[in-house]
Amino acid sequence: MKTGSLRLVAFLAFCLAPWVAAAQSYPSGTVRLLVGYPPGGSAGVTARVLADEMSRDLGAAVIVDNRPGAGTTIASDIVARAQPDGRTLLINWHQAVPKALLKKLPYDPERDFIPISRVASAATILAVHPSLPVSSLKEFIAFAKARPNQLAAALGGIGASSHLSTLQFAKVTGLKFTMVHYKGGGPASVSLLSGETQIMFSSVTALLPLIKAGKARPLFVSLRQGSPLAPGIPGSAAAGLPDFEFAFWLGLFAPAGTPATIVGRLFQSVKTSMASSDVRTKLAHLGMDATPSASPRAFAAEIAAEGPRLESLLKDIDAHVE
Q1: pLDDT tens digit sequence for 140-180
Q2: CA-based torsion, 194, 199, 205, 206: positive or negative
Q3: Of 117, 254, 281, 299, which residue is 20 to 30 A from 264 by alpha carbon distance?
């Protein structure tokens, strides 16, 4: 080998040495999971369940760091700028949502993160106020079609899962609603209870108590085959709307440049953690299903496929946050 080639190999080895060593000793020190949502919500609690199990699997402290605000971009920006050593990670939904809502992001959603794995998914339920004279999705569609913009839909905020599922439902059915935004799912549920709004897509855990108390009437679950967390409520296919499916999910991401060996170790840790029956039970109480991806590459492909649909839903109504 020529002298120049030897020098190049030596230089590359010198540059890569710190990352090779880091990968071999990973994890060394505390691992932080950044969450762009407030503590106490499904995202924050899911992150804590995952952190506890990953701590045992990795043999290192894994802590949750809630950094809510700006549509999850505060937490995302911290992770995007972090050292790619596997010690600062992000728990988040699809970056297409803040990308469509904000005029400019401080990071590049495609360039600055490595998808590791989906962690958990949640369906929503479409429920109506009991005063509506409908008992099935077919009856509701006929009722709403005859009253364009006369029914008010309760939304938990711009870009929330209740918002996006309502937009997709309206797009698939051709129905028109008056969209009413609230600061969170709690106030939105109160509006449905009072009759101020008449329909609402929300999580299984938020709506099941209202449904059992007879204060809301379920029409269907937003997954084609329904959900074991909502027994007795038909999925979209059984309800007569097979072209509709919507699920909110949370996934784990690392900063771009994180070594493949560390990404692989984190993926295996998520997979092992989500296989725990204790974890699955805890997530079920939150209305979440443990749904780890088949691989980091498969997760990246799912994100790429879903992005255009989510962006188009928000761009169709020119939604944005200042």
Answers
A1: 999 999 999 999 999 988 888 899 999 999 999 999 999 99
A2: negative
A3: 281
Token readout for 292 is 């780890």
Token pair in block for residue 260? 């493949």
Q: Are 119 and 251 in contact (CB under 8 A)?
A: yes
pLDDT tens digits, one per residue of 177-206: 999 998 888 899 999 999 999 999 998 888
Please state, in angstroms and rounded to a whole number, the distance separating the CA atoms of residues 97 and 180: 19
Question: Which residues, in sequence order, are CB contacts of 202 under 8 Å at separation 6+?
Answer: 124, 125, 127, 154, 156, 162, 185, 188, 189
Q: pTM for the whole thing?
A: 0.84
Question: Over the stretch 68-86, which tens digit does the pLDDT of each residue have?
Answer: 888 889 999 999 999 999 9
Nearest to 177 by CA among 192, 162, 197: 197
Cβ proximity of 105 and 72 under 8 Å: no
What distance in Å separates the CA atoms of residue 202 and residue 189, rounded to the nearest whole number?
Answer: 8
Place of tokens 């998520």: 270
SS3 201: strand
